[in-house]
Amino acid sequence: MAIDEDSNLYHVPVAYGARTGEAVTAWDLHVGAEVDILGRMTTLQRCSQTTAEWNKYWANRLMLLRDRLAEQILRYDTRKNDPWLTWQKGRIEAGGADLRLLMGQVAGLSAQLNEYRPRLAAQLRIPQEMLIIEDLPRKRKQAEEKESED
Cα dist. 149→36, 142, 144, 145, 146 in Å? Predict the structure, then answer.
């Protein structure tokens, strides 16, 4: 982490979501996100070009899934969806896509579609790679704990 007007780089082992108080993962971090870093509420302002590309890649995948799910649900259910399930920012700056929101939207719409087309809903879900990536810190911690026991 870099702080304006400070030439040092800092390693912050855990940051917490400003609203949830839970440890954040890669999917919670985006330009505009509010996180608690070392006890201070911080709004993430910028990211590297590589991070922006990574954020855009996953956002595009999730938006395609979300839009396809919403389209499929319209075929079977005439009720209006909760607005949060299809909400998106007007203009998304580099690295500014809220991947956690998109993951929630995909999961919510997939659950709705599951009532009508379970097999299709199983195909149109959060990519397995995302779940594996999110689980990496937990697995790493378990491996470290096991190593220290031996």
Answer: 32, 11, 9, 6, 5
- Which is nearest to 100 in space by CA: 42, 45, 23? 23
Give the single-character DSSP code of 43. Answer: E
Torsion sign across C-alpha atoms 128, 133, 135, 136? positive
Query: Whole-angstrom distance between the N-terminal and C-terminal Cα of the chain?
Result: 33
- As a whole number of angstroms, the distance between CA 108 and CA 63 comes to 13
Segment 59-87, tens digit of pLDDT = 999 999 999 998 888 888 777 777 777 76
> CA 69 to CA 97: how far, in whole Å?
19
Tell me which amino acid residue 83 is: P
